[in-house]
């Protein structure tokens, strides 16, 4: 963890030493006419020098430089030099791609500070909880999936705020849990929407994916989880995040299914208690409106299944009868 004085020193070096940055690959929606072109090796040198100035271990500084410069080089400017000085995970794909270097499939997950507002709720409870899968192919090619389980990462909304441009539908909500197109209320008092946006467009699926990452990284690992993680940009205590890394060797099957069984007793103790606490927290979140009730989308199947158990399953006949 770094303190505020350290952060100020790092960002002072950034402002004084490097104010503009451009990689070879960039978003087609952004103008680059006024950008300065800086070689990647120079960006890495700058990052290492900044971190070394605050007594960071050399090997740690080098890994951070590779992670952040890789993000910018791949066009993820919200996760590159923009994150120098924070305890940000960087792009999840950077870790997954390390397995590809050895001919393996790599998976990488992390939980984060609570930024995502679950479907039908109004309070940030889960993180952006990114996940990544990297897979080798021939001729040094590879497939890399690297995504947040929110519609976008927080950094993209921060960039829109700096440029004073509106954000699209489905990115964030205000303090009342209502969809918002202005970046600042989302950042200051609202939160990010799950991948998929609103309930009508499948946002509950992103909510479910965020829960999955939270289970692997927070509940299973014994780290902080959900709303128990410190707030973003708060430095009064250690973040105590959890990460999950998986490397899979290539195995050939005739058909394609995948089954994985994980014994929670092989990891941090108290899994069942922490899991129940997270589920109860999500079940009891304050809803956006009274009409939505306190039963959140992820758990609507609880009451649906209970109803079927007591009343049976209705089937529709061809003539429209039951």
Automatic annotation (TrEMBL):
Record has Oxidoreductase as a keyword: yes
Single GO term (MF): oxidoreductase activity
InterPro entries per the UniProt record, alphabetical: Mal/L-sulf/L-lact_DH-like_ah (IPR043144), Mal/L-sulf/L-lact_DH-like_NADP (IPR043143), Mal/L-sulfo/L-lacto_DH-like_sf (IPR036111), Malate/L-lactate_DH-like (IPR003767)
Gene3D superfamilies: 1.10.1530.10, Hypothetical oxidoreductase yiak, domain 2
Keyword Transport appears in the UniProt entry: no
Keywords: Oxidoreductase
Family in the record: Belongs to the LDH2/MDH2 oxidoreductase family.
PANTHER family: MALATE DEHYDROGENASE, OXIDOREDUCTASE-RELATED
Protein name (Swiss-Prot/TrEMBL): Malate dehydrogenase
